[in-house]
Amino acid sequence: MKAFVLDRYGKKAALRSADIPMPELRDDEVLVQVHAAGVNLLDAKIRDGEFKLILPYRLPLVLGHDVAGVVAKVGPRVQHFRTGDEVYARVDDFRIGTFAEFVPVKEASLALKPRGLTMEEAASIPLVGLTAWQALVVKANLKRGQKAFIQAGSGGVGTFAIQLAKHLGATVATTTSTGNVALVKTLGADVVVDYKSQDFEDILYGYDVVLNSQDGKTLEKSLRVLKRGGKLISISGPPDPEFGKEIAAPGFVKLVMRLLSSGIRRKAKGRGIDYAFLFMKANGSQLREITRLIEAGAIHPVVDRIFPFASINEALAYVEAGRAKGKVVIKFK
C-alpha cells in the first residue's frame, strides 16, 4: 500500500513516499481504508523528535493520528463494526499511521462517522474533539454558569473547544488575531481578546477554567486570570507527575517530568489552583458522545484547507506555520 514514511527524526524532515506492506490486523482491530486524514501539530512534533521520551517509536514510522474512512476488514473479536461501515477515529499511540491507504484501529477507539459530514470534515474532528472533551468534560468538569478561557480560539482545538464550552453552558473567552475575531464570535466566544493589540491578563479575571495551548510565559500569565479553586489545563506542557504515572513512564522520565513541571505546580498551588497536563487518548465512547453533538447541530467542524495525499509535506508545513483557521486535512479519494 502507498504511505508516507518518516525514516529519521529531524526538524522539518521530509516524509518519504513509499510502497509498504499492508499492516497486520490484531484480533480486536478494524482495518480502515483511509479516505481522509487530519494533519496535526502533534505529527510535526513527533517528526521533529520532540516526543521521543514520551513516545519512543521505532523508525521507520508512518505518522497520522486522525482518520475517516470505510471498514475493509474486521478482526475475529470485533463485535460492533462490519465491512463497509463509514467510520472515524483518533488512532491509538503506537498504532498511528493514517498517512497511508489503510490503517488498523482498535474497535474501542472507533466510532461511526457522523451523518451529514463529508469524510474530510469527519477526519478533522477526532484529535481536537477528544482533546477538548477530555480537558473540559473529564478534567475540568465544566459546568453551566462557569467561565472558561480557551486560548488560540481560531486553531484546531480552539474552534472545537469554544463550541463545546458553550454547549456546556459556560461563558467563553478566547484569544485570536484581528482577522479571526468574527470567526470565533460565530463559534460562540463571548469575550474575544485580540492578542495583536491586547493582553488577556489585563482583561480577564475570575475564571474557573483555562485551556492552555501556548508557551510557558502564557501558562504563567494564565494563573492570574483564574480564581482560587480554578483549573489550569495545559495541552502544550510541561507534563506533570500524574501523566508520568498514566503512561507508566520509566523512573528517569518521571523524574524529568517532575522537574519540568515543578515551577508551574508550585505557583499554581500557591494560588489555590489545580494544574494538570493533558495528552489526549483515543476513546471510541467519547467520540460517540461527540458524534451525538455534531448530529444534533451543537458543534460543527471547521476545516481550513484540504490537501491531496501527495502533498502531505506541504500540509505539515502549513500546520506548523500556525495560521490555519480550524483544521487541515489530507484527502485520499
UniProtKB/TrEMBL annotation:
Q: Which Pfam families does this chain map to? A: ADH_N (PF08240), ADH_zinc_N_2 (PF13602)
Which residue ranges does the record assign to the Enoyl reductase (ER) domain? 10-330
- At the top level, the lineage of the source is Bacteria
InterPro entries given in the database record:
ADH-like_N (IPR013154), ER (IPR020843), GroES-like_sf (IPR011032), NAD(P)-bd_dom_sf (IPR036291), YIM1/Zinc_Alcohol_DH_Fams (IPR050700)
Q: Which GO terms describe its molecular function?
A: oxidoreductase activity
Please give the CDD domains that the UniProt record associates with this protein. MDR_like_2
Q: Give the PANTHER family listed for this entry.
A: ALCOHOL DEHYDROGENASE RELATED (PTHR11695), RETICULON-4-INTERACTING PROTEIN 1, MITOCHONDRIAL (PTHR11695:SF294)
State the name under which the record lists this protein.
Answer: NADP-dependent oxidoreductase
Q: Which species?
A: Variovorax gossypii
